[in-house]
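If your schedule permits, I should be very grateful for your opinion on a structural question. The matter concerns a single protein, recorded as an amino acid sequence and a row of backbone structure tokens. Could you please explain, in whatever detail you think fit, how the structure tokens follow from the sequence? I set the record out below, with my sincere thanks for your time.

——
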Amino acid sequence: MKVRLPLLYSSVLSLLALAAPSLAQRPGQVGPGRSPGNASITLTPNVISDQPSLDFGAVAQGASKQLSLTLTNTGKTGGLIRGMQLRLDGAGNGTAWQADLEGTVLQGGTLNTAVGITRQLLPGESVPVTVTFTPNAEQYDALVLRFTGNFDGGSNIDVLDVTMTGLGGHEGDPYLHVVINAPSFLVDYDGDGQETVTLDGSSSHTHEPGRTIIAYEWSEGGSVFSTSAITTQTFASGSHQIELKIFDDNIPSHTLEEQQDLDVIGPGEVPGVLARYYDAGGSGASSLLDAVPSSPDFGEILSTTYVGIGNTVGSSTLVQNTMVQLSAVLLVTTQGSYDFTTTGGSGVRLELDGSAFSGPQNLSPGT
């Protein structure tokens, strides 16, 4: 028995040695170009963000909201942050966005923006980043906050992206957006005391994910006159306040309403210069100078008495044989003799207070 005990003990020691190799025999981390049997250990940084995305939701236009994220190096050696970018991601722009990393501030814009940084991040170290969203419009923005640097120990520049979304909202439901496409005034060219106009609300929308607009309601003075997205209506001379209310597919529906003023005015009430275009067809434009039709083929408001001639006459679709009539109210501040000069065209007529004239005119203060 004295002889066998050492042998049994030796056998046990041998089994333990086989089950527990020495540290020098343990395989290191498998990295590029390494095999499990290599005795070297690869130490790398590993820079991560605790927030893969930042959703600011709806923020009232002119208000401000801040959210934060933290960059942490969970690796075994130092990492390096070299830059920060605000990149557009398919919706809106970056003008309402700002990112701050320890006093290095990056302001967004209408295009991608970037700023350089040299910030080492030791193993286990963290650095906070504050993002501020201050919407200046009723607009949905989608951006990417990108960090560049050495984050995993490779030789290339690494990229770490954090997606960000935010909606510039308004009073009422912050996700709904009423859009009314209609002129602010109509000109009663023929003097019949009314004008017809198309009101278009089809561009109204919601920014709430998964929701859509399902109903429209047009009204004036509390009386509904249409439930279509696009409607054509006739309004009498005077001022009108048109209201559009939209409904989404929430249960119950979320709603939002907006108003737009619409004035039906006579030709003499137009602010600026009223330009009216008449198609003379094959008879020639000069034939209309002394026989002006009751209604123009096209009309627009100009800031000057100049009508540009390019592929078309003014903003109309007419290209030739067109008679243009310009009407404006002239404010005279000093009594004196005034001369009116015209250029262009094959013929011209000048009228002052409804009467034809030529040559200099003596005018007193007034309109």
